[in-house]
Amino acid sequence: MDQITPGTGGEREFRAALARYATGVTVVTALSDRGPIGMTANSFTSVSLDPPLVLWCPARASARCLTFVAAEHYAIHVLAADQLDLCRRFARSGEDFSGIGMTTTPEGLPLLSGCLARFDCAAEAVHDGGDHAILVGRVLRAALRKGEPLLFWDGRYGDFLHHN
């Protein structure tokens, strides 16, 4: 096993080491002053069952980061294996909701259909996380269905059987 020390010119290797951890893929949606906005993120995790808290981390370099940091509410959608198109759409552009069977929460949040799970959140806290912001949300409602997840590992998307 190769050893690296982050911050000493080994950033590429550090990123490669992080990529060895497989994650699920989410799209987080909120309302901006221009309408609905979305962002693909794989930095999502549970924090607490009581109270029900989750967190995710948008990159500060993203033009959408400040909108999510300021949002009072957001919805986190866990993508299914057949939703790679949604993943890629919201990785590129956060405002293209065309052709998506979108509904809304009582708070007006845009909701994406077909996801494996969804967490409707009220902003609980924002923390500094270096080149990312750490957003903690209090889960107001959750929804789920059966299915296979979309996974991200080593720079590639796939499911338990295939890599895309």
Q: What this model shows, in words?
A:
- It is a single chain.
- The chain is mainly beta and 164 residues long.
- The protein has a single domain, classed as Pnp Oxidase, Chain A.
- The chain is 14% helix and 41% strand.
- It has helices spanning 11-18, 65-70, 84-92; strands at 23-24, 26-32, 35-41, 44-48, 53-56, 73-78, 103-104, 110-111, 117-129, 132-144, 151-153, 156-158.
- The strands form 3 sheets. It has a 7-stranded antiparallel sheet.
- The chain is globular.
- The protein starts with 10 loop residues before the first helix and ends in a 6-residue tail after the last strand.
Task: Chart the SSEs and their pairings.
Layout: H1 11-18, E1 23-24, E2 26-32, E3 35-41, E4 44-48, E5 53-56, H2 65-70, E6 73-78, H3 84-92, E7 103-104, E8 110-111, E9 117-129, E10 132-144, E11 151-153, E12 156-158
Antiparallel strand pairs: 1-11, 2-3, 2-6, 4-5, 5-10, 6-9, 7-8, 9-10, 11-12
Count helical runs.
3
Which CATH architecture is right? Roll
- Report the portion of residues in β strands: 35-45%
Q: What is the CATH T-level topology? A: Pnp Oxidase, Chain A
Q: Characterize the overall form.
A: globular
Determine and state the CATH class: Mainly Beta
**Strand element count:** 12
Please give the radius of gyration in angstroms. Answer: 16 Å
**Approximate helicity band:** 10-25%
Mind describing the biggest β-sheet?
7 strands, antiparallel
What distance separates the N and C termini?
27 Å
Under CATH, the homologous superfamily reads Electron Transport, Fmn-binding Protein, Chain A
Structural class: mainly beta
**Number of structural units classed as domains:** 1
Instruction: Round the mean pLDDT to the nearest integer and report it.
Output: 91
The secondary-structure element order is HEEEEEHEHEEEEEE
